[in-house]
Amino acid sequence: MPSVPISNTSLSNLQPNTNSNTNYSTSAITNEAQRFATTRYPFPPFILKFNAGKINDKATIEDLINYSKINFSFDLDLVGYRTSSIRCNTNECNLLIFVKNSSSFSFLYSDIKWPDRLFNETFTIDKQPSIPPQLAVIITNVSYKIDFNDFENELRNNYANVLKVIRLKNKDQYDTKIVKVEFSSSKTRDEIISNGQMVINYVKYDVKEYLPQVSILICTKCFGVGHFRKQCKQTDDTCKVCSERCPDVNKHNCSGIAKCLHCGGDHYSNDMKCKVVKQYRADLTKILLSSSNKSFNNNRCNNMPTSTSEFPPLPRPTKSTINGYKMPVGEQNGIMTKLDQILNSINNINDTIGDLVKRTEHIEDWINAKQKFDLKINNGIRSLQHGISRHDGVLFNQTNVIDKLILPAMDDIMSMLSVMNVKEGRALNVDFESRGGVWKNQLQAYREKRLYF
Asked: If we measure between CA atoms, which residue out of 261, 179, 177, 163 comes closest to residue 221?
């Protein structure tokens, strides 16, 4: 992507402002920032872990290229490679392979059958790299009301080499109408981009390229945005944590309290979540996209014939007619501008309605869940009422047994025992006679409901 020169811009304007009362300006987008954003490795590396502390990386790469060409007839195109010992044991090392284009990435990701050895060294691939934007597309205007699982299954059935289907979320973590689709084949993805649409469940959806966020160039000396360390004009170092200047950051006694150099927030000065860095990224993205469009339009115009004899210029219109009414061009342009504003307002209203529909769906889900919970509570109450009724019935039966069976039997038994306790007109057991009289009186009082236990 070509860079756009910035006129009358000095590097001194890009140094960070250490005055906390002044906001840091990111209005100047430098050529260095544009080159940094467009010349980083565009594809994540493939990481091969070898069971050796040191390998011949050049010979290993040549062996991989020859293996791909001989066994798969594929010319593997690489942009670089390097070894690394990060996250490795003593007798291990990693080989990072950077591909040049999406076809080479697709080949290493899904098409190749990796050999057991490269240059007589065994290796493993612990983790596949993430899918780059060059193998992804976005589908717009996907309704909230569709069954997303059915949508995904239909998409996988209609199109080959689909890896992931993700509905993107906004900053508030609400679903949007944009769906990201990742492919393992560059050919499939390029064909879909060329068609400009996908048919899913008999509905045509517009398809666009997926554009990721650009990388931001931040100086490691002053933590200013838009220039390299070797171009920095600041003499002292700057601590990325507390934003204080010091002659040597390695000997700096940092307070440990995070304070951003750009916005004064409680985060590091190189944090990508900083609002100033975010604004710089947005401005840089706009310039890169506009420069790309200008380059495309210029190239297209340069290929057009410009002979005035074959293509004479049209006369400049002075008036225009709308439905038979002659209107000056200026007024017509004003009407078209207002129509554009109305269309933009309608689009904003549609987006707002979409958000309201989504929130309404959340409310409806909450109401349905509450109704289910209330139904469960009511069922529990009815179950308790039924249990109480059964308990009352059992208690009534037991009361009848006591009143009509046990108490009369006890009365008869007491009467019989009282008769047996008398002999020749005298009580054999005076205590029993006394207690028996008390028991009979209590039974009589209970039956007459004058005594309660």
From this structure: 261
